[in-house]
Specification:
Layout: E1 3-7, E2 28-32, E3 35-37, H1 41-46, H2 48-55, E4 68-81, E5 92-97, H3 112-121, E6 123-124, E7 126-128, E8 134-136, E9 139-146, E10 149-154, H4 168-176, E11 195-202, E12 205-210, H5 217-220, E13 225-226, H6 229-232, H7 237-242, E14 252-258, E15 262-267, E16 280-285, H8 289-297, E17 303-305, H9 312-317, E18 321-336, E19 346-347, H10 362-371, H11 374-381, E20 386-388, H12 411-420, E21 428-432, H13 441-453, E22 458-461
Parallel strand pairs: 1-21, 2-4, 3-4, 5-16, 5-17, 21-22
Antiparallel strand pairs: 1-18, 2-20, 3-18, 4-17, 4-18, 6-13, 7-8, 9-10, 10-12, 11-12, 14-15, 15-16, 19-21
Helix pairs in contact: 2-3, 10-12
């Protein structure tokens, strides 16, 4: 695989980021809306714990300059719809989700849909607010004791869903557990491997020691959800998926899970934080864009996420709907595989693999970046609901660099760079990417392939 499209929402690119890429090139930030029924506005906003995490991604934890950034999704949209005052006082909220949840084990697979669901069933020691600021979760405070030691003061009086108290032992167990899931395709050990020692100073004080000075540790702690040691000590991922071990401290309790169809949650009346408005929440998986919008229009669901850009104008014209949008942290980018000396996915124009991988040359990688018309992606594919971005991550995320500027569209300059690198006639390249995982992802991939063809790179999409 020589070029792959992925997103930097927490976990999304972790599973595919093993391939090295180019220096940061320019992303495009995009917009993906939610919509609300007007008569449920107040309840929907009160239910912000669910809504926020379903519509806005958690921040990316690192900003590695090893990928070619092409596009960023910047505003998320959510739609709620209602037509009668009685709905505003309903006890159930039904949401249409764009992506399925593959596992209920909060430590098994580090991808956004799973993380979003886990955030309603579990809590982390540290939370991240909408601006990217670290705020207390199950830890009230944290401090650096010395260069390699952090101390976390835990929140007293917190209970798990089964009524058992949350203690430092649960936190230590939860930090140890990701390393035991050796079959994980996207492990959470990225956020725990810096820790070499864990100490229970007292029932509500946790001390963590790292092998070397490591400032991002509090941020990493926002990604590890705390499970009940009592419930999970001998539990497998299957035990979590069945609900047997699904005991957290979050605002909702698990009711049922039917993979590919729905997840049902019930309000946790003993939650330590702000109580949820809704007694019951049903999350319906409706991956097809048209079907998700149709379910909203028919009143089968009260809200949908990832509103298709093609439907936004129609929804805005309907007085019964409210479209809510805001800047997101989603970045769409390409991972270029310049680490390999040769690849079957980089060929000459006749389709024969090249002995030397052109992507190892920075001039070729820069040419690819210059060939991409980001404003055209914004206006034609994203219908104005995006913006070019200059970094792999969004502003406010660790590693964002204000000095980086958006790469301009310059096909002539791109052709010259290819010629200077020894490829005046271009070469063949296979582009791998998802279909219906991100907003308009297939259209973005096909359009980028057209841009590449204009500078002599014959791109094939898979």
């Amino acid at each position: 695989m020589m070029a792959r499209i992925c997103g930097n929402r927490t976990g999304d690119c972790r599973a595919v980021s093993g391939r090295a890429g180019a220096r940061p090139v320019n992303p495009v930030r995009a917009n993906t809306p939610p919509v609300y029924r007007k008569s449920v506005d107040n309840d929907a906003l009160a239910f912000s714990h669910l809504k926020d995490s379903m519509t806005s991604p958690l921040p990316s934890r690192t900003a590695t300059p090893m990928r070619t950034v092409l596009t960023t999704l910047a505003r998320l949209f959510f739609v709620l719809v209602a037509t009668s005052a009685t709905v505003a006082h309903a006890t159930e909220l039904k949401l249409g989700l764009a992506a399925d949840v593959s596992s209920l084990d909060p430590h098994y697979l580090n991808i956004a849909p799973n993380i979003a669901l886990s955030s309603h069933l579990f809590d982390a020691l540290v939370n991240v607010d909408a601006s990217g600021k670290l705020i207390p979760g199950l830890a009230l405070s944290w401090r650096a004791v010395n260069a390699t030691t952090w101390e976390f003061k835990l929140r007293p009086g917190v209970k798990f869903h089964d009524g058992s108290p949350f203690t430092v032992e649960d936190a230590i167990f939860s930090l140890d557990r990701p390393a035991t899931l050796t079959n994980s395709p996207g492990p959470f050990t990225t956020y725990t491997r810096q820790i070499v020692d864990k100490q229970a100073v007292d029932p509500l004080t946790l001390r963590l020691t790292t092998a070397a000075p490591y400032g991002p540790l509090p941020l990493d702690m926002s990604t590890i959800f705390i499970v009940s040691k009592k419930a999970a000590q001998n539990a497998s991922t299957d035990d979590f998926n069945s609900g047997r071990a699904l005991i957290g401290t979050g605002p909702f309790k698990f009711v049922s899970f039917l993979r590919g169809d729905r997840i049902e949650l019930a309000r946790n009346p003993d939650y330590w934080g702000e109580k949820a408005t809704w007694d019951k929440v049903t999350l319906r998986v409706i991956a097809n864009n048209a079907s998700r919008t149709a379910a909203l229009l028919a009143g089968d669901v009260d809200a949908i996420e990832a509103v298709p850009t093609a439907d936004i104008a129609r929804i805005k014209r309907n007085p019964d709907f409210r479209l809510e949008q805001r800047v997101s942290w989603r970045t769409i980018f390409w991972t270029l595989d310049q680490a390999e000396h040769s690849s079957p996915f980089v060929t000459d124009l006749a389709g024969k693999p090249l002995a030397k991988n052109p992507l190892r040359d920075p001039r070729v990688r820069l040419a690819i970046s210059k060939s991409i018309n980001r404003p055209a992606l914004v206006s034609r594919i994203m219908e104005g609901l995006a913006q070019p971005a200059s970094n792999l991550v969004a502003p406010g995320i660790l590693g964002y660099n204000d000095d980086l500027k958006v790469e301009g569209y310059d096909p002539a300059g791109a052709k010259k760079l290819l010629a200077d690198a020894g490829y005046p006639n271009g070469f063949g390249l296979t582009l791998h990417g998802p279909n219906n995982r991100y907003i308009n992802d297939e259209q973005i991939i096909q359009t980028v392939a057209q841009f590449l063809s204009r500078i002599g790179i014959r791109a094939k999409v898979q």
